[in-house]
Amino acid sequence: MAGETVARGLGLARPGPRTSLGIIWTVFLARLRIILRYKGAILGESLLPVVFAGLPILLGIAVAGDEQTAAENFFRTTAGAGQGASDFRLYMLLGSNTFMVVSLMLWLIGYWVRREQETGTLEALYLAPAKRLHVLAGVTSYTLVRALIAFVSAMVIGSIVFQVNPLAGNFPAALGYLILGIPALWGISFIFGALILRIKEANSVIQLLQWVLAFAMGVYFPVTVFPALVRYAAMAFPPTLMNDAMRSTLLGLTSIYGPWYIVLGLMLMAAWTVPLLGYEFFLAVERRIKKDQGVGQF
Amino acid sequence: MNLRAEYPERPSRDIVKYVGACGRGTMPEPIIRVENLSKTFMSKVRKKGKRERKQVHALADVSLDILDGEIFGLLGPNGAGKTTLIKCLTTLLLPTSGKMWVNGFDVHKEEDKVRASIGCMLMGDRGLYWKLTGRENLDFFGALYHVPKAPRRKRMDDLVSLLKLDEFVDRTVETYSSGQRMILAFAKSLINDAPILILDEPTVTMDVPTARELRHIVKELNRQGKTIVYTTHLMHEAEELCDRVAIIDHGQIIALGTTAELKASIRTEDVVEMEGIFPEEAVERMRAVPGILDVGAVAMDSGLTKLDVRCRDSRAMLSKIIETASGNGASIQFIKPKEVTLEDVFITKTGRTLSVDTRVLGEKEAPRGR
Amino acid sequence: MHRGFGLARGGLRQYVETFVDMSKKVFVEYSRYPIAFIALFVQIFLIILLFIFSAFAFSSGEPGDPRVTTFAGMMAYGFVTNIFLSFTLWEVGFSIREEQVRGTLESLYLSPTNKFSNLLSRIFMILSWTTIMCAAGLGLVSVVMGGLPASNVGMGLLILVFTISGFLGLGFLFAGITIRLKETAQILVSFFQFFFMIFSAQFFPFSVLPQPVLDYISRWLPVSYAVDLFRTTLLGIPPELMPGNYWLEFLIVALFGIVSPVLGYFGYRAVERKARSAGTLGEY
Q1: C47 contacts in A (CB within 8 Å)?
Q2: CA distance linking residue A89 with residue C253, whole number of Å
Q3: Minimal Cα–Cα distance from C145 to chain A, Å?
Q4: Model's pTM, two decimal places?
């Protein structure tokens, strides 16, 4: 039986909701400060989707022979898959932009864990009494803000470069779907963050995963072009759902999942089940690592 | 500087007076208690292209109490298990078996409270965000330790002043030297004013004046009531700072007690070396002094005489030896008391020096000399 | 008087032995990252497939449309040059950064080993593995597509060797820039990756670029000629940039392959000398 509790120190008082919010805000602010000190890092996120949209656009025009034929051929191909779209430029821009948001989540959360492990700050975080959930909430809030800023700025720049008008469609609704889809991305990132804690080859895992997701999401084409088994597997991915919801809203297409209320329902379900599962998985792996070697082992 | 102005100062106590003294005053309660703690790792070894898995017993059935208000030293070579023990206490690592309580909280069941009870400096100069300034790092970790905003700001200012961080605290950590990072890491460990401070080799990479200053601060913090767990390789640090010391080797505590007790456990006499001119009478008079066991004299080439004076306690006898020698016509040119050190204790107990790396990837050897 | 082990020997033999030892070190390092190997292969395969599917989306839909095959081939072979460029910039340029952060760069500089052989050994292993992965990726895509055109393979490989050599020069230059700019170099590398992706038309034919872009940017980049010549040779069609003058384009590519590494190396040594005199070599 240990001696009486020596109740000294500033941190032993029971932390209330205000303190918890304070932790979330502190973590958010710290991450923001850190990224602002990497010159030019944020600029890349606004330009990258434009470059990635440009590649299939230019390739497509080359294949078709000219712009008009490209639009006709693209419409015919996508109509055959149930989502005829003539504005292939906006289609590609939206797809690559959504892909960038997905990548950003993987890097900002999945890779963040590994980076903290390498620099030793992960142990420092684990030594503090702040709940892991609050720290993660701070990190995820930061990723949400960064993703939104990157998405909007990339859409603006891409619209100017490719001379498309995203506001012709329901842009606020598309943005709403993006915000609704991000929690599921957090969940996927927690899962991969946990795997990275274990495997430690962060760069390779994330680079591989982001291209698998790009393929499965149908960044440049609808997933209905895939064979049945691959198609259903792709449709089960939350990022595919998010991409399709945004695309159908912005381009006035029929979603491959059905009417808008089914899409909304599926997104709401994904928004709370996936992060919950991801977080539980993260905790389970973390516990395993603490039994093995400790979280600081990098 | 009183770093704990918001709490009443604890009366100073002489821990030595209480330890092991049955019936003489009240024994302070343990603030950290460890019972039968064991930790086993599975280690992968590559030998000639093959991979083998071996069990490594990093901690084997360790039990100890750390008393409230003491400075407790953990000594041992690399790979002995010091860091593993610290990591288990600070919840970073789950033990294989055993129980621990920190500040009255069960480490398994009340992790958050345990972490709130401890200020740590474990990772050396790592564990800081390079792209944040020193001040921003302190603010960040202060928030994570639930330190409210106003006291946090004040505490940061106090720490900046105490540790002389003014020159660099507003620069990003990536511009710091390794010594500056260590000082900042130390400041970080103090931000939450926890009752327990765990410092893992804090003076590594510090220059001598800074290390001395840090030790002075550690003593001051202890005077103000903090319990301090201090791991180090440096004998003089342990002897200077620690009320009690545990020597750990191959995952087991092989010796535990005050420095005086540990030294007394291996040797019953000290030696005082002297060089000079010593008349026969001076030597005979010294031999007759109570407490002096023997005096050996050897003539040196330089014409001086070398004396080895064997006694029970060189510190207690030194002034008497000098007085007797000088009072009987001796001219002392050089004097050097040779005391038992903690390294001598370790060598006696284990047969090795503290500088030998004991990370054995294989069958654990039983410690020798117990 | 014993002069120490490192002082006694010298010459080509020691140089080659050091190169072999350092290559082995890189190989052992990378073999302990098995997931990285698998990830690289899968990435190459997926990216090529992604763009081929995009090409299909714009095709006329006629079975065996030759335009699709040609442009898919352009994309696939152009992507191979993109992979080599990316890896040269990242693995050569950024490996210096990693060594800087870990502190092993200073250790390397403390040894009498030739710095160039350190770079070369790393390059040799990475490029060997990348070549195998690209070949495997293209083979798999060929199976999926029912065949990728592959004419004049020998000539294509020679052009690829010059191309890679030219890219190495860029890699050395970036290694020097990394020593100087540290973390900012990462952003610069990304920028140049995407710059060449667009303006050297690595994923699409040059014909779709606006004429002013082609005349005032693309034609001034040696990388453009390397990309153009490599893929058109393998596809068995005239080059796009100089359709009537294959051998002039070949000369440009050959010169790029010979001159670029020399210039790049001297650029790297100049920056390195400056860092050593400023004492910033170990700073990260």
Answers
A1: 211
A2: 34
A3: 14
A4: 0.77
> In a mutagenesis test of the A interface, which of B145, B171, B188, B196 is the best target, namely the one with the most A β-carbons within 10 Å?
B145
d(Cα B129, Cα B173) in Å, to the nearest integer? 7
Give the Cα-Cα-Cα angle B14, B20, B26 (nearest 5 degrees).
Answer: 60
B105-106 β-sheet, strand order: B50-67, B30-47, B97-102, B105-106
| Chain C contact for A42 (CB, 8 A cutoff) | no
| Structural domain range at position A165 | 22-290
Q: Does B97 touch chain A (CB under 8 A)?
A: no
Assign B332 to helix, strand or coil: strand
C197 membership: H or E segment, kind and range: helix C184-199
User: Is C35 an interface residue toward A (CB < 8 Å)?
Assistant: yes
User: Which pLDDT tens digit goes with each residue over A79-110?
Assistant: 876 778 888 999 999 999 999 999 888 888 88
pLDDT score of A243: 93
Q: Work out the minimum CA distance from A109 to partner chain C, whole angstroms.
A: 20
* Closest chain C residue to the Cα of A214, Cα to Cα: C50
User: Taking CB atoms and an 8 Å limit, are B136 and A33 in contact across chains?
Assistant: yes
Residue C114 above 90 pLDDT?
no
* Secondary structure (DSSP) of C5-63: HHHH--SHHHHHHHHHHHHHHHHHHHHT-HHHHHHHHHHHHHHHHHHHHHHHHTS---T
**Whole-angstrom Cα distance, residue A231 to residue B261?**
75
Neighbours of chain A (3+ CB pairs under 8 A): B, C
Instruction: Report residue B353's pLDDT band, with 50, 70 and 90 as the boundaries.
Output: low
| Domain count across chain A | 1
Domains in chain B, please, with CATH? 15-117+194-264 (3.40.50.300), 270-338 (3.30.70.120)
Q: A4 in a domain, yes or no?
A: no
State both tokens at C261.
Answer: 């590494």
CA atoms within 13 A on the CB side of C257: 17
- Assess if residue A230 is contained within a domain: yes
Count how many pairs of residues, chain A against chain C, have C-beta atoms within 8 Å: 124
If we measure between CA atoms, which residue out of B281, B364, B296 comes closest to residue B80?
Answer: B364
Residue A2 lies in a domain: no
CB contact under 8 A, A126 and B105: no
Q: Specify the pairing of strand B227-232 against strand B196-200.
A: parallel
| ipTM of this complex prediction, to 2 decimal places | 0.82
In a domain, residue A41? The reply is: yes
For chain C, the structural domain boundaries read: 9-278
> What digits encode the pLDDT tens for the residues A254-263?
898 999 999 9
